[in-house]
Amino acid sequence: xxxxxxxxxxxxxxxxxxxxxxxxxxxxxxxxxxxxxxxxxxxxxxxxxxxxxxxxxxxxxxxxxxxxxxxxxxxxxxxxxxxxxxxxxxxxxxxxxxxxxxxxxxxxxxxxxxxxxxxxxxxxxxxxxxxxxxxxxxxxxxxxxxxxxxxxxxxxxxxxxxxxxxxxxxxxxxxxxxxxxxxxxxxxxxxxxxxxxxxxxxxxxxxxxxxxxxxxxxxxxxxxxxxxxxxxxxxxxxxxxxxxxxxxxxxxxxxxxxxxxxxxxxxxxxxxxxxxxxxxxxxxxxxxxxxxxxxxxxxxxxxxxxxxxxxxxxxxxxxxxxxxxxxxxxxxxxxxxxxxxxxxxxxxxxxxxxxxxxxxxxxxxxxxxxxxxxxxxxxxxxxxxxxxxxxxxxxxxxxxxxxxxxxxxxxxxxxxxxxxxxxxxxxxxxxxxxxxxxxxxxxxxxxxxxxxxxxxxxxxxxxxxxxxxxxxxxxxxxxxxxxxxxxxxxxxxxxxxxxxxxxxxxxxxxxxxxxxxxxxxxxxxxxxxxxxxxxxxxxxxxxxxxxxxxxxxxxxxxxxxxxxxxxxxxxxxxxxxxxxxxxxxxxxxxxxxxxxxxxxxxxxxxxxxxxxxxxxxxxxxxxxxxxxxxxxxxxxxxxxxxxxxxxxxxxxxxxxxxxxxxxxxxxxxxxxxxxxxxxxxxxxxxxxxxxxxxxxxxxxxxxxxxxxxxxxxxxxxxxxxxxxxxxxxxxxxxxxxxxxxxxxxxxxxxxxxxxxxxxxxxxxxxxxxxxxxxxxxxxxxxxxxxxxxxxxxxxxxxxxxxxxxxxxxxxxxxxxxxxxxxxxxxxxxxxxxxxxxxxxxxxxxxxxxxxxxxxxxxxxxxxxxxxxxxxxxxxxxxxxxxxxxxxxxxxxxxxxxxxxxxxxxxxxxxxxxxxxxxxxxxxxxxxxxxxxxxxxxxxxxxxxxxxxxxxxxxxxxxxxxxxxxxxxxxxxxxxxxxxx
Length: 980
Prior knowledge:
Largest sheet: 32 strands, mixed
Oligomer: single chain
Helix content: 10-25%
Distance between the termini: 198 Å
Shape: elongated
Structural class: alpha/beta
Radius of gyration: 44 Å
Strand content: 25-35%
Number of helices: 8
C-alpha cells in the first residue's frame, strides 16, 4: 500500500511530460518571418513601435513580436494587429506569404499608396481592417478571392473609382464598411448575392443614381448607412422585405418623391434618418403606425408639408424626433402628449401655428432634455408648463410671435443650460426671479424683444454663462453692473442697441483675455479705448456706431475681427505696423469706416495677409495706395470710398484675385483704368470707380468680368466709345445673383461670425446703401464722362439689367431699337447727349420702368403711345424740340381733332416737314401783307391828295364838336335833375 502514492506520482509526471510535448509552443515559420521583415522595410517611419521586430538572437521568434500572433501548434502567423501604431509607408505585397493569416488589422496608421492586389491571395483571411489610413486608387478585383472573409473595413481612406465587382463573390461577408472615401458611380447589383451581410456602410462617398432593388435580397441586413452621397430617385419597394433592418440612414442625398409606406413593415427599425433630401408630400400615417420600436426619427431638411400625423402616438419608444426645416403647418398635435420617452423634440423652421398649450408634452415631463420650436408662427401670451420639465437642458423658442410677459416660472428649471427666446414680442421687466434659479445656465439669448432688465449688483444671478446675448433689450442708460459677476467662463457678450449711454467700465476690459466675441455696437458709449498690452488673437469685436474717440490703440489690431466704424476716432493707423502676434493668423475683418482718421494708408499689409474685408471708407486718408496692398491676396472686399487718395491704381492689386467688391469712389485717383482688372480680378461682382479723375478709354478687358453685377465708372474723364463686348458680362445677361458674404467660426468655439457686404449705389438720383438686397442690383453707370459714338446694340443683350445710366456724355445716333428686350429695366437715363432719331416703340414694352430721362438730346418724331411712356412727366422728354405727342403739349400733325383740322401745325417727321414750313411762310406773309395794304391804303391817300386830307380832318372836327355839345347838354340836364 505504501508504494501506491509513488506510482501515482510517476503517472502524474509522465502526464505532464506528455502534455508539454503535445502543447509546446512552436516558433514561427522562417518564410513568414522574412515576409514580416520585408513588410517592415516598406515603412517610412515607425516611431520605434516595432522595436521587437528584427534579426537579433533574442528576436528570432516572430511569434513574440509586437502585434503578431501565431498558431501554437503549427507556428504559422494567424493574426497581425498593428492598430494605431503610427506606422507610415506602403504595404508590401510580401504579406501575401502569410497564407494562414486569418486576421489583419492595419487601421489608424499612416499607410499610403494603392492596395496590394496580392492581398487577394490570403484565402484564409476572415477579417481585414485597413481603415483610417491614406490608401488611394481603386479596390482590387482580386479581393473577391477572399471568399472566407467575414469582416472588411476600408473606411476613411482616399479610395476612388467605381464599386468593385469583387464583392459579389464574398458570400460569407457579414460586415462591410467603405465609408469616407471617394467612390463614385452607380451602386452595384452584386450586393444581392451578399445574403449574409448584416452591416453595410457606404456613406460619405460620391455614389449616384437610384438605389438598387438588390437590397431586397439582403434579408439579414440590420445596419444600412448610405448618407452623404448623390443618390436620387425614390426609395425602392424592395425595402418592404428588409424586416431585419434596425438602422437606416439615407440622409444628405437627393432622394425625392413621397415617403414610402414600406417603413410600416420594418417592425424592428430603431433608427431612421431621411434628413436633407428633397422628399415632399405629407408624412404618411401608415408608415409610422406600427413602428413601435423606433427610437430615433429624423425627417428634417426636406419639403414635407401638412400636419404632424396622430400616428406618432404609436411610436411609444421614440426618444429623438426631428422634423425641422420643412413646411409643416397646423397646430401642435395632441399625439405628442403620449410620447413618454421623448428626450429631444426639434420642430424648428416650419410653419406651425397656434398657441402653446401648457400640457402639450405632458407625458414626457420627466424625460425631455431639449425642446426646439424656434422659427415658427407660434403666438400668444402663454408658455408651456415650464416647471414640469425637470430634466430640460435646452429650450429654443426664438423667431416666433410670442408676446406677453416672460413668466417667472422659467427660473424653476434647475437643469436648464440653454435659453433662447430671441426675436419675439415678449415684453415686461426681467428681474432676479426670472434668472436666479438657473444655476446651470450656459447660453442666454433674449435678444430683439421688448424686455427691460432690472437686476442690481447685489441680486446677480448664480449662473456663470458662456454666452449672453441681450441685443435690443433695455439695459441702459448705465452699464449693467450685474454682468460683472459673469467673469469665470464668459466667452461671448452681445449687448448691442441696448440704450447704454455710458463709458465702458474697467471690469469689462478684464474680461478681454477670455472673450471671443464682444458686441456693444449701436449704443451711445463714449470715451477712449484703453491701451492694453495685448488683445487676444481670437477675439472678435464690434464697437461700431457709438461715440468713441481718440486714437486707436496699436495692440487692438492683433484681434481676429474688428469693427470700429461710425465713431469719432482720429489720427493715423500707420503706427499699427509691427504690432502682430506671429502665432496667429491676424485680422480677417477690419472696418474703420466713417471716422475721422487721416494720414496715409499703412504699408505693413504683410502682417494682415489673411485679411478678407478691408473697409476704410468715409475718412480723411490721403496719398497714394501703396504697392504693398497686393500682399492681401486673400482679400475679397475693399472699401476706400470717400477719402482723398490720389495717383494711379497700384499694379500689385492684381495679385488679389479673390476680390469680389472694389469701391474706390469719391477720391482723386487718376490715370487710365488698368486693363488687368478684367483679366486678374475675374471674380469681381461690384466695381465702383465713380467720382475720380480717371481718363482714357474703357479698356476692352473689362468685358472679361463675367461675374460683374454693378459697374460704375461715372463722373470721371473717360473718353472713347462704349465697348461692344459688354455683351460678355454674362452675370447681367443670365438669371441668378451673387450675395457678397462670408462666414467664419472662431477657433475652438461655436461662435459664428457672418458678414454681408454693402455698397452705395447711385439709384434714381440718390445715393442709397444696399446690403442684403445688393444682389438685386444689376447696373451699369457710365454717366458724366466724355464718351462718344453710338450706344452699342449689344448692350440690349444684358437681359437682366435693372439700371442703365449713360447720361451727360457726347453719344450720338439712335436709341437701339432692341431696347425693349431689357424687360427688367427699372432705371434708364440717356439725357444730355446728342442722340437722334425717334424713340423706339419697344421702349413702351418695358413695364417695370419707373424712372426714364431722355431730355436734352436731338430726338424727333412722336413719342410712342402706350400707358408706360405717357405716365412720365414732360420733363422726361424736354430739350428735344422735334419731339411731339403726349405728355408734351406739342401735338403731332397726325393727331386730328373731331373737325379733322390740325389745330397746331407740327413738325412731325420728314413727311410733313416741307408742308409745314410752306404753311408757316404763307401764314406770316399774309399778316404782313394785310398790315401794309391797310395802313398805306388809308394814310398814303391822305398824304397824296390835299383836298381829301382837308375834308378828312374837317369831318373829324365836326364829329369832335358834336360830341362835345352833346356831352355838355347831357351833363347840364343831369345837374338840374339832381338839384330838383
